[in-house]
Amino acid sequence: METLPGEEGLNILRRLIAYAEKIFQFSGIVVAGVMDLRRQPRIPTSCVVQSVAALFWARMGSLNALELAADSSFFRRWLGHPVCSADGVGRVTALMDGAGLRRGIHHLYDRLKRNKALPDQAGWGVAVLDGHESHASYRRHCPGCLERTIHTGQTERIQYYHRQVTLMLLPAARPGCAGVRFLLDLEPQRAGEDEVATALRLLVRAMGSYPRAFDLVLADALYATAPFFNFLLARGKHVMTVLKDERRNLYQDAAALFASFPPAEGSFRRRNCLWWDLQDLLSWPQVARQDKLGIIPDTEYLPLFRVPDYSASTCFLSGRA
Ligand SMILES: [Zn+2]
Fold it and tell me: What is the number of structural domains in the chain?
C-alpha cells in the first residue's frame, strides 16, 4: 500500500488498533512513554508516534503517503490531532528518546511473554544478531553517518549511510500461526568500529534488560570471532555462528574431523545431508574455553535453523555454555 489504505484496509487497521489498545494498552503505556527533545512542542509526541505506527501497520510506503492521509477523519479521530507534515514527522522522530521507545518494547515483550506468545524452540530461547543498512545517500548526511568511497568508472564519491545491529527473538511458531519475530533492541554502528563491537555494546544493554529472554545467540560468519564467543560463554549463553573457511585452522581441524568420524544422515529442505557433531576443537586458542567449542549442526540443533539465511551446506561453529 503506497498511499492511503482503502475502506477494507482501514477496517483492518481499526481492528489492529483496537487489539493493540486492549492487549498492550498501546497509547496509554507504549506511546505515552515516548518523549522527544523539543523545548516547546506544538505537535504532541504521541501524535507522531501513533502516526508512524499507523504508517507501518498500513504499510504506507513513505512519510509522504502518511501526509496524504492527513485529511482522513479516521486519523483525526484516532490521533486527536491532524497528521503533521512529512518533514514534521521526520524531524520529531529524529529527536525522540530511545530509552522511552525501549521501555515500550519491553512492555510489549512482557505482555507477549505473559500471554505465552513467545514459546521457546525445543527448550531454547533463541535470539539472532544481524547488521542492517537502513539508508544511503551521496548528498544528505548527519553527524551519525558512516562514510565509504564508491568507485564508479574513473570517479570516486563519498557515500553516507547508517548501519544498525539488531537483536531479534526467534520464538517457536504456535500451532497454526507463523512464528513471531520480535525485535528486542538495536544499536547503531559508530564510525571506526566493526559490526561485532557494535553487537557487543548491544548485548551488554539487552542482557541487562532481558537477562532470561534467550539462551542461544545465532549470528553469521562475521561473528566467528574470539571476543564474541568469549563474551557470551562467560555470561552463560550458548552461541552459534556460521563457519566459513576464512578461519583456516579451525576449518581444517573440522575437515580432518569430518574425515575421521562417521556422520549422521539426515535431510534438510528436501535435500539429503550429512551431519557431524564435533566437540573439543583445539585450534582456536584465543577462545578462553576451547573445550566448549563444537562444529554442528546435528539433529539436536537442526530445528532451530529454519531461517532463510542458513543452508544445508553451512557449517556452524557452536559454543556451549
Ligand atoms: Zn546520518
Answer: 3
Question: Ligand 1 centroid vs 161 CA: distance in angstroms?
Answer: 6
Q: Distance between CA atoms of 278 and 298, rounded to whole angstroms?
A: 9
Residues 14, 62: one domain? yes
Which grid cell sits at 296? 554442528
Interval 244-253: pLDDT, tens: 665 566 666 7
**Domain region containing 276:** 224-321
Q: In Å, how far are 165, 173, 216, 218, 296 from 129, measured between CA atoms? A: 7, 19, 11, 6, 19
Q: Quick check: is 1 in a domain?
A: no
Would residue 114 count as lying in a domain? no
- The reply to whether 205 and 228 lie within a common domain is no
**What length is written for the chain?**
321
Condensed to tens digits (0 to 9), the pLDDT of residues 253-293 reads 766 777 777 777 766 566 666 666 666 666 666 776 666 66
Residue 81 located in a structural domain = yes
Compute the distance from residue 135 Cα to the ligand 1 centre, in Å. 9
Question: Can you give the pTM of this predicted structure?
Answer: 0.82
Spacing, Cα 99 to ligand 1 middle (Å) = 20
